Amino acid sequence: MFFYISSTFCFSQDSLRENEDPFQPKLLSEDGSWCWFQDKRALLVEDKVFFTGVTAEGYNTVSEWDLSNNETFTKTLTRGTLPPDDHNVGALMLRPDGKLLTVYAGHSIDSLVRYRSTKSGLDIRKWQDESVFETNGRVCYANLFYLEATGETFNFFRGNENNPHYLLSRDEGESWEFGGRLFQFEGRSYLKYASDGQRRIHFITTDGHPRHFNNNIYHGYLENGNAYRSDGSLVGPLSTADTSDLKPSDFTLIYDGDLNTRTDVAWTSDLQLDESGFPYLVFSVTKDPITRGETIHTSLGGFDHRYHYARWDGSEWIEEEIAFAGSRLYPGENEYTGLISLHPGNKNVLYFSADAHPVTGSPMLVDGERRYEIFRAERLDEHQSWHFSPVTYQSKADNIRPIVLADQNREIVLWLSGRYSSYRDYQLKVYGKVLPQAKNTLEAGKKKITFLTSRDPDNYAADMTIPYYAMKLGKAKGYQTQVITGEGERNAFHLPGLENIGNSDLLVFFLRRVALSSAQMALIKKHIDAGKPVLGIRTANHAFSLREDNIPAGFEDWREFVPEVLGHENQGYGPATAITEVLPAKKLGKGLLKGIPEEPWTSQGNLYLMGESVDSGARILLTGSSAGLKAPVAYTRKSGKGKVFYTSLGYPTDFTHPAFLQLLENAIDWALK
C-alpha cells in the first residue's frame, strides 16, 4: 500500500558564481554525505550533474551542478523526518519521460520506502509531495533500475530480517507494489547492482556484514523472472512473495575469503557492465580483522585494507588485488574504507580513496597525521598493471567515497571532504572535478622515451605520477615509454637498467638531490653530449644537486646540470601553501602552446623561483604568479645541439589537469621532431 504526505519542509540555496579554473576541484555543497549501497547517487544528464546527499542534521537533499556555467543549486527534500545518518541517502533515476525520481529510506528505523519525482523534467526546484510505501519490515537503502523491454522499474532494498527485497513499479515510479524477496538467509548480505537497461539486472553480494561473516563475494543476475549464475546456468525463479529459496552461495563465487578463517574479509564496493554486457567490479578486503562480532576491542585491527578488482571474460572470473586501501575510517566499523568506484564506461579506469600509498602501503601523512586522498587509476588494457595519480594531495581534510560519471567527452569524479566520525556523526563537503576524455592519436611511431624518477617523500609523488603519465602517453600517442625509479641512499643512488638508455630518443628527469655512480652519470652525459633532447619536470632543477658532502667513492653529483643543461638557477620556492596561477607568455594556438587555454589556469603547487637567472636565449612559454611573486614556469632552450624543455609545474594534481597534460604532450612532440 502507499499514501501521501501532503507537505514537506524544504529550502534551496544558490551557490555563488565563481571565476575559477574549471578543471580544479569545485566545491559543490557545503554540507552533504552518502553511503554506498544506493544507486544511482549521481547522474550526468547532458551538461548537468545531479547528486543526492544527507546533511549533518539529517536533511535529504538533491543537488545540481551545471557544467555549462559551473553553478550549483541544492534542494532540501526532508527536514526533521529522518535522523542524521548517511544510510538515508536517496537513489536517483532518470525516468523515460524525462523527470527525475528519487527513492530513500531510513536506516532500519521503520518500514517506509519514501519516494517522489520532479514536477517537470530535470527541474529539481519543484518536486511532488513525498509518498511512502509500507513494506513488511524495517527497510534501508534504495537501488533503482528501469527495464526498457518490460517497462518495469525495480527498487531493491534491504528489508525484513535484513534480507534484500524489491518493489516494482509499472508507471515509472509514480506508484509501487511489493515485488518479492531476493534472498532468505540468516546473514545480512550487502549487494551492489547494475543493469543493461533492457532485461537484465546484475548483482554482487557478500554473505553478510564483515563484522559478523568472513565473507566471500558472489555474482548473479536476474532476467525474465529468473535468477542465474555468471555462466547463464539457472539458479531458480525470482521470488514474488515475502519468502525466497535463494541465498548468496547459490551464485557464482568470485572471491573466496574462506568462511571458516578470520582473514581476508571482503565487502562489496561497486559494479558496472562493459561494452559487451560483461560485469566488472571492485571490492575491499580487510587483511587484519578483529574477532568476529567484536564491538569493544576495536583497536586491535582494521589497519590493513586492500582493493580488489574482478571481471567476467565470458567464461571465468579474473580477480586481482590492485592497491593498498590503508586503514579503517573509524573504530567500530573496522571494515569501512575510503571506498573505490568504477568508471561506468571504461573497465580500465577507476577511482578510490586511501590513506596509504597505493603501491607501497606506506601511510599518507599530512602534518604527521594519516590523511585520505582521492586517486585515479588507469591501465593500458586488462592484461597490464594499474597506475595511479593523485586527484587530491596533501589535503588538510580527509577525502572519501568517490563517485564516477562519464560521457563521450568527459569524466567526472565527486567525493566527500571533511570529518567523518561515524555514519551518524560527520561534517562533510561535496567536491567535484572534471577531466576531459583523452584523444588517442597513435601518431608518434616508435620513438622511445625514458623517464628517470625517485621514490622520495619530497618528490611530489613522482613515483606514482610518472608511471601513470608514461602509460597514458604510450596509450594516447604510441610512444615507447619506460620508467626507471631509482633506489638507495641519495648520496649513493642507483637507477636500475640505466645502461639501456642508449637507444632512448628523449630523457625526462623528475628526481631530486641524488648522486649517481660515475658510470651512470656518464651515461646521462653521453645522451646530452650526443645532442639528444632533455625534458625536466619540477624537481629536475635540483636533480643532482646533493646538499650532503659525504658522497662515497665512485659516486658523484652534478650541480652544473641545472645552469648548463636546464639553463637557470634554483632560487628557492614561493610560499608552500600558495597556489600558482599560470599565464601564457607567448601567443597561443600553435606548437608548444597548442591547446593551452587562453584564460589563466592554476596549479595547486607553489611557485619555483628563478630570479633573472634564466638563459637569455630561452623561449619562455608560460609564467606563474603566486603570492605576489612571478617566475617562468615553462620554457625551451638549447644545450649544445640538444633541445631542452623545462617546467616547474608537476605538482601531483597537475597530472589530472588537461592544460598541464597538453603542455607535456606538446613539449615531447617538439623535442622529438
TrEMBL record:
Ranges of residues in domain ThuA-like: 495-671
Membrane spanning stretches: none
Coiled coil: none
InterPro entries: Class_I_gatase-like, Sialidase_sf, ThuA-like
Domain of life where this protein originates: Bacteria
SUPFAM superfamilies named in the record: Class I glutamine amidotransferase-like, Sialidases
Protein name: ThuA-like domain-containing protein
Lineage: Bacteria, Pseudomonadati, Bacteroidota, Cytophagia, Cytophagales
